[in-house]
Specification:
The chain is an alpha/beta fold. It has four helices and six strands, in the order E-E-H-E-H-H-E-H-E-E. It has helices at residues 37-50, 79-84, 88-91, 100-109; strands at 10-11, 27-32, 65-70, 94-97, 113-116, 144-149. Helix 1 links the parallel strand 2 and strand 3. It is globular and about 55 Å long. The relative contact order is 0.25.
């Protein structure tokens, strides 16, 4: 018999800017309004894989990719999202925030680079648009937050 508890997201109000010598992620995946549990699980699975996770390191706190969702309009931690994540949901620490715009604004003020994926450029907004291959990565770049979501838009 296996007794399993619920998987809860850890509440967070701000993303800590990484400092040298600390084990805080310099890359965060922020999911906004990803409500489909299979999409949610697939994104967790990819983040876990791309974060360089390997057997024996699952319980370390120095994940190279942080994961955050908005506590409203997000797929819950469920059996469906866990299956779609191929078990990554149980191995990743997922954080949630009550106010995503405020959390991202505070991160921007601290020097985070915030990138959002979109099929087309939003009209009426003062944003700088890049093709994915033109986004510079590496140690000389500031820590980055990648925002994905809003499946309906």
């Amino acid at each position: 018999v296996l007794r399993a508890g619920t998987l809860d997201f850890e509440p967070i109000t701000r993303i800590t800017y990484p400092k040298e010598g600390e084990n805080t992620p310099s890359l965060w995946l922020v999911l906004d309004e990803v409500v489909d549990p299979q999409n949610f699980g697939a994104l967790l699975r990819s983040a876990y894989f791309l974060g360089g996770a390997s057997p024996g390191k699952e319980n370390e706190t120095n994940a190279s990719i942080g994961i955050m969702v908005c506590s409203k309009n997000s797929a819950p931690a469920s059996a469906i999202s866990s299956a779609a994540s191929a078990g990554a949901l149980e191995l990743c620490q997922v954080y949630s925030t009550n106010n995503l715009p405020r959390t991202l604004s505070a991160a921007n003020e601290e020097g985070w680079r915030i990138l959002g994926a979109a099929a087309s450029a939003p009209s009426g907004m003062n944003v700088e648009c890049f093709d994915l291959q033109d986004v510079k990565v590496g140690e000389s770049q500031p820590p980055t937050i990648l925002v994905l979501g809003s499946e309906g838009h």
